[in-house]
């Protein structure tokens, strides 16, 4: 089972750190507010949303979901939200919405009980929240069960016996989204996923690096200006310039200038 | 050479088709192997025999949602993983919870999923499940905006080795889910959550 | 369960690997199935035995230029042709991952690709992409060994229906979709380079 699932699992064994902050294991989400900012980020990221956070608070204290003590739970929830806002973390709107809902329920509980409905059941303002918490928890557990099931390719292999093609050989077809799927698998295997994040801007730089290398191939020295097509606009010039710098950094091209104000030349580092 | 009336030969043809097929084969697909009319009952008998023949070997013949297919026994995965370390990724909770909701509550709109999870569902999560071929849009809900209705595919069941949605792990009973260890005088209040019946109904509808 | 010293079990592992592999496997590749040192002579003996076992069946174990592979006997291809029209073949995960890295991280050396994938890149994988005309060497890096720099071609863009590399699907928030693979053996050395020993060796040899 993955660490991330363990993070918020109700059966979290004591002694298993939920996070590491400055190298120190954090064994449980602190109840007071002395939460180091870095830990807050980790804590926030480890919850799938306000329902998940609420469930955690309830389960951790072994409270009865059907009879949630609204005052303390609301106070704890608000403490998290306040701390996160104080650290100016981008907080999803859903967290704030939940805060409003909790306060509303709490205040309704303080009011005199409304008259009973037709069936004689008292109208508990918590009922809808309880229903949502339970429904979410049910799906959360179901997701865990699904993840445990053997999956094709991940946990078992299909057969791949060759049939010799009599007709002409068909080449595999690939579409762009297949590349995205391939990248997902690479990410999953890489220990530091952030390292391999590729942004769109970065991609245009990489594409331009390839263009420059192709352009320089077979030419000895190319004037720096020759690499820049002024008609393509400022964004392109910037990307192109960054591409040259990146190529220099990676040792793929050499840039030289004999003296100040002399022409600048670019050539392949390796001819 | 043997003729098709020869049962042993017929069985070899079936086995060969299953060994070489890149997808699960239904009995009606298997019937197409032969120009003669081979009865489904006979094919089923032979499939059972083939399944029996492979007991205790490295591969097994399994029945899936879209038909029969050979696969390597899970026991051998550690060996095979040394040859091909590339595997599909392990999905995050966001992806798996979305998948679970589609699987157990289908057909659902993205709005339904968001209502259950309590957070917005990013496009990339849905895209990942669609691209993996586990989830598909099977229609549109007749409400403003006509949101797509998502359901799981045969491939999802095949890839999890299941014949039908009924084989999914049963949902935790909401009643037992909530009872804290030290329990309760508040049994009367459980009426506030009539959800377990509802969950049963959803599965029933799928049958 | 049997141990690897059990010859019968060893044979089943070999057979299962050959049945599930999408490409021919050389004896040296087959050796990698086992953490123990299994001699090539023994593997060859067992391959001969497996070949013998499959006599008279629908598929046969053959030795091709690149290694051993199971394939359907020619005698049965007329039957197999009657099945649903075959789907276009697919590239192995190794090929797709390599292509994705060249597309998104170009220009890259083979060493770069291996560092990102965390496993070695076999020559046949690069060969497949070069022969397809999707990837080319556009220069060499000025480091010892002068490794080639790979980039994608115009043909790659054309065949995928893209105008420029900027049209590739963005990878921006993929990190939230997957979990790191569980690596039970590597407790306490999480900061180590993501290459396993085997991949290290391959890279070393190539430089």
Automatic annotation (TrEMBL), chain A:
<dbReference type="GO" id="GO:0005737">
    <property type="term" value="C:cytoplasm"/>
</dbReference>
<keyword id="KW-0132">Cell division</keyword>
<keyword id="KW-0963">Cytoplasm</keyword>
<keyword id="KW-0131">Cell cycle</keyword>
<dbReference type="InterPro" id="IPR003768">
    <property type="entry name" value="ScpA"/>
</dbReference>
<dbReference type="GO" id="GO:0051301">
    <property type="term" value="P:cell division"/>
</dbReference>
<keyword id="KW-0159">Chromosome partition</keyword>
<protein>
    <recommendedName>
        <fullName>Segregation and condensation protein A</fullName>
    </recommendedName>
</protein>
<comment type="subunit">
    <text>Component of a cohesin-like complex composed of ScpA, ScpB and the Smc homodimer, in which ScpA and ScpB bind to the head domain of Smc. The presence of the three proteins is required for the association of the complex with DNA.</text>
</comment>
<comment type="function">
    <text>Participates in chromosomal partition during cell division. May act via the formation of a condensin-like complex containing Smc and ScpB that pull DNA away from mid-cell into both cell halves.</text>
</comment>
<dbReference type="Pfam" id="PF02616">
    <property type="entry name" value="SMC_ScpA"/>
</dbReference>
<dbReference type="GO" id="GO:0007059">
    <property type="term" value="P:chromosome segregation"/>
</dbReference>
<comment type="similarity">
    <text>Belongs to the ScpA family.</text>
</comment>
<dbReference type="GO" id="GO:0006260">
    <property type="term" value="P:DNA replication"/>
</dbReference>
From TrEMBL, chains B, C:
<dbReference type="InterPro" id="IPR005234">
    <property type="entry name" value="ScpB_csome_segregation"/>
</dbReference>
<keyword id="KW-0132">Cell division</keyword>
<keyword id="KW-0131">Cell cycle</keyword>
<feature type="compositionally biased region" description="Acidic residues">
    <location>
        <begin position="194"/>
        <end position="207"/>
    </location>
</feature>
<keyword id="KW-0963">Cytoplasm</keyword>
<keyword id="KW-0159">Chromosome partition</keyword>
<feature type="region of interest" description="Disordered">
    <location>
        <begin position="185"/>
        <end position="207"/>
    </location>
</feature>
<protein>
    <submittedName>
        <fullName>Segregation and condensation protein B</fullName>
    </submittedName>
</protein>
<dbReference type="GO" id="GO:0051304">
    <property type="term" value="P:chromosome separation"/>
</dbReference>
<dbReference type="InterPro" id="IPR036388">
    <property type="entry name" value="WH-like_DNA-bd_sf"/>
</dbReference>
<dbReference type="InterPro" id="IPR036390">
    <property type="entry name" value="WH_DNA-bd_sf"/>
</dbReference>
<dbReference type="Pfam" id="PF04079">
    <property type="entry name" value="SMC_ScpB"/>
</dbReference>
<dbReference type="GO" id="GO:0051301">
    <property type="term" value="P:cell division"/>
</dbReference>
């Amino acid at each position: 089972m993955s660490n991330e699932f363990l993070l918020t699992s109700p059966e979290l064994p004591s002694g298993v750190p939920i996070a590491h902050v400055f190298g120190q294991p954090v064994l449980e989400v602190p109840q007071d507010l002395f939460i180091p900012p870095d830990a807050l980020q980790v804590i926030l990221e480890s919850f799938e949303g306000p329902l998940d956070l609420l469930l955690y608070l309830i389960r951790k204290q072994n409270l009865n979901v059907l009879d949630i003590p609204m005052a303390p739970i609301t106070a704890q929830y608000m403490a998290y939200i306040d701390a996160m806002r104080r650290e100016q973390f981008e907080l999803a709107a859903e967290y704030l919405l939940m805060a409003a809902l909790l306060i509303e329920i709490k205040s309704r509980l303080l009011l005199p009980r409304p008259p009973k409905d037709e069936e004689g059941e008292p109208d508990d303002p918590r009922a809808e929240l309880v229903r949502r918490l339970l429904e979410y928890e049910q799906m959360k557990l179901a997701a865990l069960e699904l993840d445990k099931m053997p999956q094709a390719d991940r946990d078992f292999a299909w057969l791949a016996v060759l049939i010799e093609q009599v007709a002409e050989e068909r080449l595999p077809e690939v579409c762009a989204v297949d590349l995205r799927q391939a990248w997902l698998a690479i990410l999953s295997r890489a220990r530091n996923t952030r390292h391999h994040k590729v942004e769109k801007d970065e991609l245009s730089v990489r594409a331009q690096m390839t263009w420059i290398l192709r352009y320089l191939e077979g030419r000895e020295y190319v004037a720096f200006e020759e690499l820049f097509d002024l008609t393509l606009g400022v964004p392109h010039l910037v990307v192109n310039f960054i591409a040259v710098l990146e190529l220099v950094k990676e040792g793929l091209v050499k840039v030289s200038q004999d003296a100040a104000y002399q022409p600048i030349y670019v050539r392949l580092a390796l001819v | 050479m043997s003729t098709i009336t020869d049962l042993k030969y017929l069985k070899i043809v079936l086995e060969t088709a299953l060994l070489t097929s890149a997808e699960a084969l239904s009995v009606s697909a298997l019937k197409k192997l032969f120009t003669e009319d081979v009865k489904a009952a006979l094919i089923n008998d032979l499939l059972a025999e083939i399944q029996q023949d492979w007991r205790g070997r490295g591969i097994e013949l399994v029945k899936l949602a879209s038909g029969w297919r050979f696969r390597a026994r899970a026991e051998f995965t550690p060996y095979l993983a040394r040859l091909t370390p590339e595997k599909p990724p392990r999905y995050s909770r966001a992806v798996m919870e979305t998948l679970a909701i589609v699987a157990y509550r289908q057909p659902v709109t993205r709005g339904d999923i968001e209502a259950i999870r309590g957070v917005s569902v990013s496009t990339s999560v849905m895209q990942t499940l669609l691209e993996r071929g586990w989830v598909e849009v099977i229609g549109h809900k007749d409400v403003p905006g006509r949101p797509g209705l998502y359901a799981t595919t045969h491939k999802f069941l095949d890839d999890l080795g299941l014949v039908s949605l009924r084989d999914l792990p049963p949902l935790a009973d909401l009643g037992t889910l909530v009872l804290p260890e030290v329990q309760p005088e508040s049994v009367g209040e459980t009426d506030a959550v009539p959800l377990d019946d509802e969950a049963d109904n959803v599965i029933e509808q799928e049958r």
